[in-house]
Amino acid sequence: MDNNQQYTQNQYTPQSSGFSDDDGGGQKFDIMLWVIRFIKSWYLFVISLVIFMSIAYVKNRSWQPNYKSSALVIIEENKGYMGAQAALMQGFSVERGYRNVNNQVIMFGSYELISRVISKQPELTIDYYTKGRFKSTNLYKAAPIVITKTFVSPQAYEREFTIQDLGNNNFEITASGTKQLPEVKINGTYGIPIQNSLFFIQIDKSAFYRRNFDICFNLFNLENLALAYSSRLSFDFLMTGASVVQASVKGTVPQRDCDFLNGLCEEFLADNLSRKNDAAIKTIEFIDEQLSTISDSLRISEGRLKDYKANNFVVASVGGSNLMSQYTQLDVMQTELRLKESYLNYLTNYLKSNVEEGTIITPANLGVSDANLSSLVSQFTEMQLKRKEIGVKSPLYAKYTRDIDAVKEQMYEALKNIRVGLDIQKADMQNRLQKLSAGMQELPYKEQQLLNIQRKFKINDDYYTFLVQKRADAQIQKASNSPDNIILDKARLASMTNAGEKNKAYTMFLAIGLLVPIAIIVLRELMVPYIRTESEVVSMAPKRYQLLGVIRHTDKKVPVIVDKYPKSAITEAFRVIRTRIEFLSGKSKGISVMVTSSQSGDGKSYISANIAGVFAMTGRKTILVDLDMRKPSINTELYLSANKGISSYLANQISLDEAIVKHPDYKFDILPVGIVPPNPGELIKSDNMHNLISILKETYDYIVFDTSPIGLVTDAYAIIEYVDIILYAVRAEQTNKSFYKRTMAQLEANNVHNVGLIFNDVNLKKLEYSRYYDSYASYGKKGGYYYYDKSKSPHSQYVNYFDKTEEEF
Fold first, then answer.
1. What are the two backbone dihedrals, phi and then psi, of residue 189, each rounded to the nearest 5 degrees?
2. Deepest in the core among 166, 228, 396, 709, taking most CB within 10 A?
3. What is the residue-wise DSSP string for 207-244?
4. Least confident segment among 63-67, 346-350, 509-513, 544-548
5. Which residues lie closer than 8 Å to 166 by C-beta, 6 or more apart?
């Protein structure tokens, strides 16, 4: 079998570090090795799972169900009137700004509306509960006491108070102190008010009173509570195009949320009705002002007419009656103009007063049939409503204010134009009245006086009658108003929103309990400073530097194990290295090998001695030369004299034959260091060293140089040019990664060839190596290549590979 065939058969697949090389030169994830590492650290998983599942258990013990309470409300966008009722109520419907569905939903959840609901339900502002070991139990409408408050200071809001029944109709209120607030301890009697700097309250027994109770309570600020409810309140349309709105609140006390929702729905309907009635009320107030003014004039004119008729027996002629009829028609028209002018004055004063809320009487209500003004009034009202709903703090508040000011300017312009038209009508009316007055001058004086008095009375009476009719219409409208919206379903418990959170908590903490040890193990593996696997040896070296072999760990303190255990697995590993050395050098004898490493302690001397041993097994002349003149170890390991050696020979103190040791236990010669020289670097670079290597190559078939660590000193560089192969020892869990990587880069930069890597002291019995150990051993057992040296072990009766002692290796 030629060398190439030998190398192919003995090719060794490096053990992975968790990522192994794939065909494309990259790395693929080695899941089995990571599984082995995780199994090895099983105790981390146990500890982590116990801790995190305990946290999940405690968290679930404090878990409280969260409920969703809902109510259904139908919002009518356009609720009209039919037939005669529509004609009767024309001009008194609520503005379209209130009728928009989206606007109504905004109003439904407005802060102002929520505040009104809470102020009408004071029980919402007090929270009664009992405290358990893990969670609290709310006592809404089931507390043994009822607290009535008239004043609460800011320091008392949202502070936990404890009240304990002392018996004999007495109780004690306590609260823990803080850095800002002192401790509280107040004694009181049921039914008697308590007044202090914190609050004015009265505590009474409820229907659920029991002796010796011990409960807690909180007092909530109305503004903060309104904000809290506003954040928990949501609205949803049941279906697209429908105006049925579902108002929902999520919380841990469903009965309290249902009471709030019912109160909110009732207040929403009351607010809607109030806004509708507001238009009629404003109209009635305006008419009452006009009636108050005209009633005095009517009473005076009526008295004058009675007095004149009583004192003067005058009867109107036919001509006078005709003039009076024409006067009456003109006076009716003049009354309408007068009412229009009053409305224009009212609207002008309203705009000048800069009132930010309130309802404006629509123009049509008082006979001003200007479409432009009616549209502007509607826009103005709607914008005011929107601005009020968003609040002063909203970024849109300034925009709505600018829009309102713009509409107000348009309203001023519209009022100006209407007044111009009104002035024209008044001037025309005045001309027609003057013509009638000229005709009246032809009548007798007393008849003229009678007709003038009757005319003034008629004007006032018609105006009064007109106003009374309008007032009656407004009152009918107010009495017949009903909310546009309907409560379809009162609030009820809809669902539990966090039913699955217990299982989620266990699942989440189970995942965390698994991920934490995984992360620890991964980080621990990634942060290991030394080399642990073959793939790390290969990946950190240049690609042309091949891994020639893996030397397994042994507890045997034998320097040349290949001689003492020639049939062991370790000896076979050195034979594989020998074969690969011959393959790389291209020759089977006359081979010179240099063994070095990154640092001391990597096992280069052990490898040197055993490489020399397997070379000597072939029957060829082999010599082991110790060139680690700074820290020699061959003398000690092989029990040689330290008096004579290569240092003395290079210094021309002894001959080569005197320096070479022929050890009786080994088949190879040894050239030890001898006395440690003061100038090892100079000796290695001397001409004598060059001559020595030439002599050794002529004398021996195999030369093994044990040199200084090339990562620490440069002595080994001096003989690189004389050797065929450089063996670089890397010790598992000993060689520093960064040091090794830097040394490899230096060799690559110096263009050093024929470097072979030896992975030394690999403990295959460690758990993370077990699957490789298993396959490696199985191959040796089934193939018959690795077997036990029966002559040297007392345990030859064992057949199972994994039952063999360390001597086998």
1. -125, 140
2. 709
3. TT--TT-EEEEEE--HHHHHHHHHHHEEEEESSTT--E
4. 346-350
5. 172, 187
Q: Select from 186, 809, 193 the least CA-distant residue to 551.
A: 809
- Give the burial string for 4-32 (b: 16+ CB within 10 Å, else e): eebbeebeeebbbbbbbeeeeeeeeebee
> CA of 179: how far to CAs of 138, 140, 159, 182, 392, in Å?
28, 31, 14, 8, 35
Residues 6 or more apart from 649 whose CB is under 8 A from it? 655, 656, 658, 659, 674, 688, 692
The domain ranges of the chain are 27-63+500-526, 67-270, 318-442, 545-763
CA distances from 491 to 64, 79, 115, 123, 225 (A): 21, 25, 19, 17, 19
Q: Please state the pTM of the whole predicted model.
A: 0.56
Alpha carbons 668 and 623: distance in angstroms, whole number = 5
Contacts of 749 (CB under 8 A, 6+ apart): none
The Cα–Cα gap between 191 and 205 comes to 8
The pLDDT assigned to 420 comes to 81
Question: H helices of 627-699, where?
Answer: 634-637, 646-650, 656-659, 680-684, 687-699
Q: What is the largest CA-CA distance in the chain?
A: 178
Per residue in 192-228, pLDDT (tens digit) is: 999 998 999 999 999 999 998 999 999 999 999 999 9
Q: How many of the other CB atoms lie within 10 Å of CB of 636?
A: 12
Residue in this structure with the two tokens 């008095």, named with its chain if needed: 453
Domain covering 545-763, topology: Rossmann fold (3.40.50)
Q: Find tokens 């403990």 and name the residue.
A: 763
Other CB atoms closer than 10 Å to residue 596's CB: what's the count? 30
Closest to 149 measured CA to CA, from 173, 170, 131, 129: 173
> What angle do the packed helices 254-311 and 445-480 form, to 10 degrees?
170
Q: Are 752 and 728 in contact (CB under 8 A)?
A: no
Q: How far is CA 767 from CA 29, 33, 224, in A?
A: 19, 10, 62
The answer to whether 592 touches 722, Cβ cutoff 8 Å, is yes
Q: DSSP for 442-500? A: TS-HHHHHHHHHHHHHHHHHHHHHHHHHHHHHHHHHHHH---S-EEEEEEEEEEETTTT
Q: Would you state the pLDDT for residue 326?
A: 66
User: Taking a C-beta distance cutoff of 8 angstroms, is the pair 649, 659 a contact?
Assistant: yes
The confidence score (pLDDT) of residue 449 equals 62
Share above pLDDT 90 across residues of the chain, in percent, rounded to a whole number: 34
